[in-house]
């Protein structure tokens, strides 16, 4: 538990204000679809804070469950240690557990799941069981060539997770973190060959998934190649059309 005595007063008041403002906003349950580098992570962070939602990333959930040693975490670890894919049933089980957590009371953003129509069917069954409906599925569209440029130019400070880009958001000094002065790294998977393979898989799976949610009338595609602020505006038009203006963080 966090010792609130050590939290600066202004930070504490700011957090209280943020949560209070969330009470006037509708609950939201959304899925974000998009290729690596499409900006889903950036936009989900903004939406999560403005609406007090939980961000459900399958990778984070698996890591947390394995670290906590839960029953599902043990099953996931067994599969991963054997070099196998974690089954959809385990992933959906983790999602269902999270849906009952206090931080997910006002809704969620699902990022990275579902990846195909079979997973979408399992998700729908789970939501039906918990008397929940998806409000929207946001499809972040970006041309492949721009995705390659975005991903391959990404640089990371390993200790903090701060992310830079050699063209779009460079550090003050090339190759080093602005705060610590420590070297930045390029993640092993942030190369063109790996990304092209991931994009091929993404496109083959996502085309039927887009059609799946179109038939339900909840799919909204937005041009995520625009400036991030413009993408944020478009995202809010989809997620909460009743909002008079994009909420501020």
UniProtKB/TrEMBL annotation:
Classification via InterPro entries: Adenyl_kin_sub, Adenylat/UMP-CMP_kin, Adenylat_kinase_CS, Adenylate_kinase_lid-dom, P-loop_NTPase
UniProt protein name: Adenylate kinase active site lid domain-containing protein
Annotated GO MF terms: AMP kinase activity; ATP binding
Keyword set includes Transferase: yes
Pfam families for this protein: ADK, ADK_lid
Keywords: Kinase, Nucleotide-binding, Transferase
SUPFAM superfamilies found in the cross-reference section: P-loop containing nucleoside triphosphate hydrolases (SSF52540)
Family classification: Belongs to the adenylate kinase family.
PROSITE patterns with a match to the protein in the record: ADENYLATE_KINASE
Taxonomic superkingdom: Eukaryota
Residues covered by the Adenylate kinase active site lid domain: 154-189
């Amino acid at each position: 538990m966090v010792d609130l005595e050590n939290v600066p007063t202004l930070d504490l008041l700011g957090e209280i204000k943020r949560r209070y403002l969330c009470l006037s906003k509708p609950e939201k349950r959304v899925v974000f679809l998009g290729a690596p580098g499409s900006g889903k992570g950036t936009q989900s962070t903004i939406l999560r804070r403005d609406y007090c939602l939980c961000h459900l990333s399958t990778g984070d959930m698996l890591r947390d469950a394995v670290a906590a040693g839960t029953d599902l975490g043990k099953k996931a670890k067994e599969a991963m240690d054997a070099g196998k894919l974690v089954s959809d049933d385990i992933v959906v089980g983790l999602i269902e557990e999270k849906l009952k957590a206090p931080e997910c009371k006002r809704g969620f953003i699902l990022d990275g799941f579902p990846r195909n129509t079979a997973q979408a069917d399992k998700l729908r069954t789970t939501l039906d069981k918990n008397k929940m409906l998806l409000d929207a599925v946001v499809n972040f569209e970006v041309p492949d060539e721009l995705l390659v440029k975005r991903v391959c130019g990404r640089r990371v400070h390993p200790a903090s997770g701060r992310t830079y880009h050699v063209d779009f958001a460079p550090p003050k000094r090339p190759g080093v973190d602005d705060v610590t002065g420590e070297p930045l790294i390029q993640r092993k998977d942030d190369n063109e060959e790996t990304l092209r393979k991931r994009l091929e898989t993404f496109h083959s799976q996502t085309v039927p998934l887009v059609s799946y949610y179109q038939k339900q009338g909840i799919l909204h595609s937005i041009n995520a190649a625009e400036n991030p602020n413009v993408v944020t505006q478009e995202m809010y038009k989809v997620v909460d059309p009743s909002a008079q203006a994009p909420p501020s963080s």
